[in-house]
Amino acid sequence: MKLDKLVGERFKEKPSDCVVDSHALMVRGGYMKFVSNGIYSSYMPLRRITKKIENIIREEMDRIDGQEVSFPVVMPASLWEESGRYQAIDNSLCRFKDRNGSPMVLGMTHEEAAVQLVREYGNTYNRYPFMIYQIQTKFRDEARPRAGLIRVREFTMKDAYSFHTSQEDLEQYYAKCYHAYERIFARAGIPETIVVESDSGMMGGNISHEYMLLTAIGEDSIAICPECGYRANMEAAESIIEPLHDDVSEELTKVHTPEMHTIEEVCDFLKADPKKSLKAVVYQKNMTDEYVIVFIRGDLDVNETKLTNFLGENIHPAVITEESGIVAGFIGPKNLNAECTVLFDASVKGCNNLVTGANEPDYHYTGLDMDRDFPDAEYHDFAKIITGGICPVCKKKAITVSRGIEVGNIFQLGTKYTKSMGMSYLDEKGESHTPIMGCYGIGVGRLAASVCEAHHDEYGPIWPMSIAPWQVHLCCMKSADEEAHAAADKMYEDLQDAGLEVIYDDRKVSAGFMFSDADLLGVPVRVIVSPRNLKENVCEVVTRDKTYSAKVPVEETVATVKNLVNELMAKCKAE
Amino acid sequence: MKLDKLVGERFKEKPSDCVVDSHALMVRGGYMKFVSNGIYSSYMPLRRITKKIENIIREEMDRIDGQEVSFPVVMPASLWEESGRYQAIDNSLCRFKDRNGSPMVLGMTHEEAAVQLVREYGNTYNRYPFMIYQIQTKFRDEARPRAGLIRVREFTMKDAYSFHTSQEDLEQYYAKCYHAYERIFARAGIPETIVVESDSGMMGGNISHEYMLLTAIGEDSIAICPECGYRANMEAAESIIEPLHDDVSEELTKVHTPEMHTIEEVCDFLKADPKKSLKAVVYQKNMTDEYVIVFIRGDLDVNETKLTNFLGENIHPAVITEESGIVAGFIGPKNLNAECTVLFDASVKGCNNLVTGANEPDYHYTGLDMDRDFPDAEYHDFAKIITGGICPVCKKKAITVSRGIEVGNIFQLGTKYTKSMGMSYLDEKGESHTPIMGCYGIGVGRLAASVCEAHHDEYGPIWPMSIAPWQVHLCCMKSADEEAHAAADKMYEDLQDAGLEVIYDDRKVSAGFMFSDADLLGVPVRVIVSPRNLKENVCEVVTRDKTYSAKVPVEETVATVKNLVNELMAKCKAE
Lengths: 575, 575
Description:
CATH superfamily of the largest domain in chain A: Bira Bifunctional Protein, Domain 2
Oligomer: homodimer
Structural class of chain A: alpha+beta
Radius of gyration of chain A: 29 Å
Mean pLDDT of chain A: 93
CATH class of the largest domain in chain A: Alpha Beta
């Protein structure tokens, strides 16, 4: 490919709407173009990257006996009504009517379609286990698309679905897929991806894992215990902290706290540590608007996913009305006179001498003692885990919280979809059972962006050889020089004849211009032909990651480059 | 791949909803499953076929310097408002609102997205020409999906867009693409595909061609002149027939034709040949409901595409009200007292002694002479071309009309999209111009189904080697026989080691059952291992198309099969 024919523009200025490096570099490098909020078109370099990623995924899915199929993007709503998700999912599920008025949805995931495809086939035990997968466009009407390809509305995803006759069989297959995913990320150039336990969310099921690339720009928080290796997504990580119990319990005392509505204001005023306060966080259930008050230690936050999972229904931050009886800013568990669900977070279990609201304007209590004043209270885990928390596995006070991008996930779904959609099989004895499912997803574009996040410098991406848009970037310096141009043309032919993927820049532009374009394209091996080098009968061969740089005799250049490409490719091998 | 693990069911009975063979065979063979009207999921065999087709297309597009990109499935309506198609296209364009109430569309074609992607890049002449393409999901909310994959609502399409600075340059590239398409169809196994001139329809532009596979189940009609080789789609083919002019013109006479509303009834009653009648066909314009009456020879039909193109707006069959002044069933050009557009088809030019309506209930005229009675009439071509018509090129009365499936199309779009969407470039002199576009489409699933239509027998598809789901179908007869099973297992390994794609059937089923499954999968080469053959130390090697059948010594089988595969692959070469 001649660079001067490559469609797309490269430029220096960081676009103002790009908050993460991968986004900025991929816009600046002519990889992608904004079409609508969370919707992009890809130019050739990105399409070449995603095709290579797709092929790696395909090979690894085929290795674990996956069968590539294809499901529709547009599905009848009736299919999603069968599983109950047509009602259950919020407006991230795109719903519309076709020309005949039939309600349809855009596929954001394909559990329903997978069950529909194999419902009849899977009617007898001896056809199990099997796994089907596809690589296809998905649409999720995200409220807040962000960070370029990290969180979009339209994306290409590999989604796989396995079907089993026993939990043991699912677990065996799940383990295979777990390792296939490790291989995929290693082959795509991010072997540093870690696996964490996760919450299953809207997918249903119990056990699930997320593959996380740790990076400050990640939108997920991951609890990690460096002592025992425990890792979990915030939603799945149990928050354990030591109860703050003073030896002497003070009296419960009502104090005047005029115009102090936040726990910070009150604690400031009373010279109390927010850790010694009981904060109320108020939600409403989506379906009924019923109030739910969570009492939690003042310095902690509620993890809404944990709360949703506990309640079994969706919630939203409350709008507190006067009729509710709730006195916003002064809420406490004592003398709370309102119709609502009251929950206590485990963080306040056994605590005393707490500041909390008195349920009347401008008054708080001090000296609350949970055991004394609420001996019957039940405690559950609703808190966001924090650095310094106690590891739920090794019980050491060692938890650290890191940010990460979720590059893949695997779920043990159980029978959520097979049961609701009436899929069953007959066993050896002719008895009917419901098959058990697993599902396994990877977003292709997000993976590309994640690799870029992990491997770039200020000048551009540093693509791993396995997914680089091209393997070799050939630069002809001073291409007005006929001899240099002819030598570069020949090198272009020779490199291609050696089976290498080459992008060739013979534009009449300055070296600086040429190299900054090359940096933006991030091709791992660069070959520079120039009149000066030719005088010494050499080419410069350098790698984008700067680990290799040499002047190589012209006649040895192809062999050197070929070796270098093979070496760099070997770095993208899975164990 | 072991056949007993292949997800999908094969069965004998023709599904009642399948009207064409490819549909019936692909449902019976476990290739596809109905999800919703015009929406299907694919099982692994079809996905393997479509992947191979996609790769053939990709290679041929890359050969003519196409750059693979990707456009979104979901696009903002604003993009389609720029081109004017948001309003112009009927409800086959799927429109909906996203969670923020922004109007969106599902891509049915991507001219707008292509212009949006390159609008800035293409701002200077020296970047031209270039071509970008994608292979992606499209959705067209067809009123009448039919015939399985022949006409669906959701489909995978390769769509390509080229950009040029002159008509000559477009024409040169168009010719390249024309040949690339011939190569694609030859490589996919249907070199018999013919090219016809076509109408550009909603795409805009002037010159366009369709690639047609002639078959009785096709939904397009193609006019062919065996004398000169002229070929055109019905919409594009000019209908020319000899005027029927009697030597003596009769008087215009009003006759009583009680209760005779159709031209057949009237001609029967008056013992007139329908060819000697002037039939009125009444439409209304979609936008204004204004009436349009086309007068045409009684035995011919109006081609609505020709009429739409002439009017420059969409029409529908009329609902004739009393207020309109139109006397349904008795309409004629004489004494027509209604507000409407009156058009004459070229078929009645110079005709005399015609029967036509008298514009009053139960009366017709005889003896209408167009030249005498309507000396100022203008004539245009609105008629559907018929077998026996005059060839517009060689002028011989030799036109035949055949049915065909459109497997691809290419358009010279001109500046329809670039102009409306404000794309321009500066030439050498710094003057601004509008680039010229071409676009080029192939439906992947329809191509698969078309190949099946062209190559099947009553037992199943006969896939060309280039796109067959597997190259070799290995059958182990009487697999309960340990020796036979071991020999077949070894053959399975050996064939795969030779780089062949093998589907292996070692189920304990009857030969009849095994072969009917093999016929349905349509794999080109079949190898049969059986205890009886093994006694003679041979395998049976046969081709699905029955052109080859031999008993081959076991140790020579792999080499024989490999040769056969190569020979059959060579049949799918393009010139």
